[in-house]
Here is the input.
Amino acid sequence: MSGDIKVFPFTTKYPGLYNVLANNIKIKEDFDPSTPQANKQDYLAIWDTGATNSVITSKVVNDLSLIPTGMTKVQGVTGVEVVNTYLVCFYLPNLLYLNNLTVTESSSLTGCDALIGMDVIGRGDFAVTNFNGKTVFTFRMPSCEKIDFILDKKEQESKLMGKVYRKNPCPCGSGMRYQQCHGKY
Here is the structure.
């Protein structure tokens, strides 16, 4: 990966096994660079890979005095409904902000203020582990590399057997991949 690209990662750790991935984010109305910035407010967000798009509650709409930008049909657990859409800015825990983000409003979302869907998750790398009975999830933007547990396993096995594959770190200690260092053809 090029050194020119700035990567924004974060990791959320839980003390045990958790079935809901949540953290605090900041939300504010979408901004126009030519106008003064509105204050960001803290909200609890759940990360949901089963949601196509991100959602905010009526509480967020009221807190921020948001004005609808349109309406759309959404398929939820209770069926299809027509809801308002809004343009907002999400500030993730990695200090990255996503402006001009179209979200829908839900009056049935409980236990949180926002739901982060695949419209956000799909912009980066997202992984969850439950190693030693503790849930950890991590996210970074932009996507930096392919995450492949099968390939990782093969590389670990190759290290145990003394083989060096092209994408393994070079054994010379340069910090480069073997294919970019001593493995050049």
Remarks:
- The chain has a mean pLDDT of 86.
- Residues 149-180 form one domain.
